[in-house]
Amino acid sequence: MEAKTPSAAVNVPLYRKIRLAVVVWMTVVVLAAFSFGGLWLNIPRINMLEHTARNLYFHVPMWFTMMAIAIVSAYHSFRYLQNGHVIRDVRARAAALLAVVFGILGLVTGSVWAHYTWYEGTNIWWNFDPKQSMAAIQVLIYGAYFVLRSALDDPEKRARIAAVYNLFAFVTVPFLLYVLPRQQDSLHPGAEGNPAFSDITHPIMRFVFYPAIIGFIGVFWLLYTQRVRAAQIQQRLDALDEPEL
After folding, report:
1. What is the span of the domain harbouring residue 35?
2. Which of 59, 80, 126, 134 lies at a CB distance of 3.0 to 4.6 Å from 176, suitable for a disulfide?
3. pLDDT tier, 117 (very low <50, low <70, confident <90, very high otherwise)
């Protein structure tokens, strides 16, 4: 039977190899994203976007990564409700925190991109565009997960209620980040009346865009693994400090 306390099950040599691979992968992605030389890396001039189109390699992968994180977090919450193993709660919490981090990065990169394209020459950085607003609500929903956890003192009750809430948060992801924004008028590509981004960008950009998605998911995995390991170590230290009965 699996123990109900966290156990360190990280293959450190494998982790280091994957970490090196992710670092090298992301280095190549960043160099390719900002390369102005070499015909195959030079993006075409896109109307209004110009070279800000390179933000496609960062802004959009942030949201793909957040959605992947939401799946990981929800999976472990579901497993916690099934068996009550503490490690599942630890993993769900670590992933949920990173969902907030990548969500905030997605909002920031999106706000900067909007300012230098739609609102260039103005002081506007945020205009409550439907997609912006829905994404902000999504981040707040995951932020509320931690507010909920902090309001409960009993560890088992906290983990159980947080797991239920986390599953609710996960269900909102496709609706807030994809379905609802596409049904409303928006300046974002792919919304009502607007062509999809793939229709207005050159196919050559996909040679960087898809690797960027893979790379950022790899960055998530590294951060996630580190946080889980740190939480496991902290719980072991807490257990040592508990007085013996």
Report:
1. 12-241
2. 134
3. confident
